[in-house]
Recover the amino acids of this structure.
């Protein structure tokens, strides 16, 4: 192996979107370099998935560079001390690398207006000193440029759009097709909620509107009720799955437990449409050719759906009841495949070009960079 590169991201649990983005970045790095790939803060099961080991303090001194893999790290949902603490965790490995004079890169990340001047100062410094910075939507780029950057950040798109149905695991695809055939429905809709009706008032309203929408749906429609990470906490996704199942007659729905990114991609591809309140279930469905619909917890979802040209398919969870009903009815009755616009695919692949630029800076020897 030639050198060491540390990959940072949301790696403390097997959350579908976070791990999928990390897998894309680690896969590209293995195509581009023979360097040893290390992870930051990754749980043991995530290290096994990515084929990495966690970096030690000494590795931060000897590593050739640090990459922040895709995600909405700078699209904050909270403020005060919790937001600052999370910001420091998200940026710590990059700040440490820059302190040691190491090359850094931010690949396919999201940015919004940050609530603290200290955060804005640190993010401006990170972006100014990064070898490459790819921001995943126009709003992210605009918010970054408002910081007064000296170095130009690049507009890219979400890493997930580097994938399409040709990248599916054939065995996972066959299993998903067999599940669809077993249900024997004319149409198959994916349903995914991260909370139960007792989680919050907006969730209570959403569950009630979903129950009514399902009661009005064609009886030939089948449903897969999915989760995007292993869920055992009370009021979490597994409880939400059971609650949604109770809205439907026996034989029309099946609960699908999370079984890794490859199984999830194949499952999403097998559906006619998907309804979710989380970002990467929707975006990955779109990448696989399945139309997504969303009532979102976070405004970052709006920017990503807008970039796909389907902004009308995504509203905030706090949307008016009539708008909520429209989204649910559309999700349940939609037919036809979705095609990701070519410019979105191209911007997603631009992340790989930026990663290659980073590798060339971190490992300038001829053996460091592959084509």
């Amino acid at each position: 192996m030639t050198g060491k590169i540390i990959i940072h991201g949301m790696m403390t649990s097997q959350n579908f979107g976070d791990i999928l983005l990390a897998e894309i970045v680690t896969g590209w790095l293995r195509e581009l370099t023979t360097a040893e790939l290390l992870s930051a803060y990754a749980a043991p099961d995530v290290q096994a998935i990515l084929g990495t080991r966690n970096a030690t303090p000494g590795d931060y001194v000897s590593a050739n560079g640090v990459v922040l893999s895709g995600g909405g790290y700078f699209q904050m949902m909270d403020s005060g001390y919790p937001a600052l603490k999370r910001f420091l965790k998200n940026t710590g490995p990059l700040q440490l690398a820059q302190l040691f004079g190491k090359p850094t890169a931010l690949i396919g990340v999201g940015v919004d207006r940050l609530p603290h001047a200290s955060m804005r100062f640190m993010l401006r410094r990170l972006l100014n000193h990064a070898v490459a910075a790819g921001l995943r939507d126009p709003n992210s780029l605009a918010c970054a440029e408002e910081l007064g950057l000296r170095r130009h950040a690049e507009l890219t798109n979400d890493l997930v759009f580097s994938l399409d149905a040709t990248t599916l695991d054939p065995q996972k695809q066959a299993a998903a097709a067999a599940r669809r055939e077993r249900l024997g429905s004319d149409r198959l809709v994916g349903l995914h909620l991260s909370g139960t009706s007792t989680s919050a008032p907006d969730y209570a309203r959403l569950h009630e509107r979903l129950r009514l929408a399902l009661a009005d749906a064609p009886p030939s429609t089948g449903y897969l009720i999915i989760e995007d990470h292993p869920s055992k906490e009370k009021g979490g996704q597994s409880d939400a799955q059971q609650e949604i199942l109770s809205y439907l007659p026996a034989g029309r729905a099946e609960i699908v437990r999370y079984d890794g990114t490859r199984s999830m991609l194949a499952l999403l591809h097998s559906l006619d449409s998907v309804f979710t309140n989380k970002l990467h279930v929707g975006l990955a469905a779109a990448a696989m050719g399945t139309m997504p619909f969303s009532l979102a917890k976070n405004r970052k979802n709006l920017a990503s759906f807008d970039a796909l040209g389907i902004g009308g398919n995504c509203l905030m969870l706090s949307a008016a009841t009539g708008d909520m009903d429209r989204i649910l009815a559309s999700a349940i009755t939609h037919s036809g495949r979705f095609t990701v616009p070519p410019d979105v695919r191209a911007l997603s692949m631009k992340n790989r070009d930026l990663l290659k630029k980073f590798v060339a800076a971190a490992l300038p020897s001829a053996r460091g960079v592959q084509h």
Residues 118 and 166 are 44 Å apart (CA to CA). The mean pLDDT is 93. The longest strand covers residues 104-111. DSSP finds 14 helices and 14 strands in the chain.
